[in-house]
Amino acid sequence: MSEPIKSLPLVFKEPRGRKKPPRHLADLDPAARRVVAEELGLPAFRANQLSKHYFERLVADPSEMTDLPASLRERLVAELLPPLLTPVRTLEADKGTTRKTLWRLFDGALVESVLMRYPDRATICVSSQAGCGMACPFCATGQGGLERNMTTGEIIEQVVDGARAMAQGKIPGGPGRLSNVVFMGMGEPMANYKAVIGAIRRMTDPTPDGLGMSARGITLSTVGLVPRINQLATEGIPVTLAVSLHAPDDELRNELVPVNSRWKVHEVVEAAWEYARTTKRRVSIEYAMMKDINDQAWRADLLADVLQAYGDWGWVHVNLIPLNPTPGSKWTASRKEDEREFVRRLEAKGISCTVRDTRGSDIDGACGQLAAAE
């Protein structure tokens, strides 16, 4: 199993000849938007007006863009706000405060996003690829393989849909604001690095150039593509890095996270530590708890030792995730008593640790389940 992973590229390249999604406003930085407006024979400020409607007012309907000449609205929207996502199914849980949407992309590919409203925040979990090429055996998306990368525009459209739903009061609790974005949906974000960084810049650019979100409210998850973690540290965008470790030893991680055959546990953890040191942002270690697989007490001790090898200055937090099993899978969630002992062992060694609040188990909550069923 390790040999194909050794040749895995850092960035998945689309096959030649594949039709690309239509160009979208969110694919372009502000300067490029003005260039496009001029290419269309329009003043550059029209691009700024369109950006204000999309990123600040969260509007894509030309009839609502009353500051634009009626004769230009349809044309501008057709050129720069083409539809990228079509909802296929929407499922709700937690009295409507958790909403999972299955989207169809322009070429028929399927992706998922999940909007979750809490008392103090609203978070959307977005996809960055249709499918995933990392082949983690306990993950529904990984078992389906990789279909293609998503564009910056396709990623941002998920975020804008969530922001619009919150602003319009479509989620119980009244009108509100989308505060957090997590790249923990379908795909390995770092294998689609350019589009993902573009999306993060659109999120953090001040309105009306972007959504004006705080980088501290964005979490970028990865299974551990070490060169990309190092590159992220140089971007000047202090997002939270989340590393899906799932095992503290190479023997088990080779099985659970096949890319470990290329970058070993110590390389991944060292890259995470360097990211924390460079950005002064605490790193999250994601650890899916699997019954009798990785939840032994001695592995908790080993995980603490691996992390503390880089110092105890609070650079890391362990996020234990009760596994959301996929139908027919041998991988199941840990027993509660084993979960509690794992937490106790980590905390006894001074490692900050929490157990993730799981949502959506009754609506095919694990990433990729809806797409696989469809």
Provide a descriptive summary of the structure in words.
It is a single chain. This protein is α/β, with parallel strands linked by helices and 374 residues long. It has two domains: 25-80, DNA polymerase, domain 1, CATH 1.10.150.530; 84-373, Aldolase class I (TIM Barrel), CATH 3.20.20.70. Helix content is 35%, strand content 18%. The protein has helices at 2-6, 30-39, 45-56, 70-80, 140-144, 152-167, 193-204, 226-232, 250-256, 265-279, 297-308, 336-348, 369-373, and strands at 86-93, 98-104, 110-117, 122-125, 129-131, 146-149, 180-183, 218-222, 240-244, 283-289, 316-322, 352-355. The strands form two sheets. It has a ten-stranded mixed β-sheet with strand order 1-2-3-4-7-8-9-10-11-12, with helices on one face. Strand 3 (110-117) and strand 4 (122-125) form a beta hairpin. The radius of gyration is 21 Å and the shape is globular.
Which helices and strands occur, and which strands form pairs?
Layout: H1 2-6, H2 30-39, H3 45-56, H4 70-80, E1 86-93, E2 98-104, E3 110-117, E4 122-125, E5 129-131, H5 140-144, E6 146-149, H6 152-167, E7 180-183, H7 193-204, E8 218-222, H8 226-232, E9 240-244, H9 250-256, H10 265-279, E10 283-289, H11 297-308, E11 316-322, H12 336-348, E12 352-355, H13 369-373
Parallel strand pairs: 4-7, 7-8, 8-9, 9-10, 10-11, 11-12
Antiparallel strand pairs: 1-2, 2-3, 3-4, 5-6
Helix pairs in contact: 2-3, 6-7, 8-10, 11-12
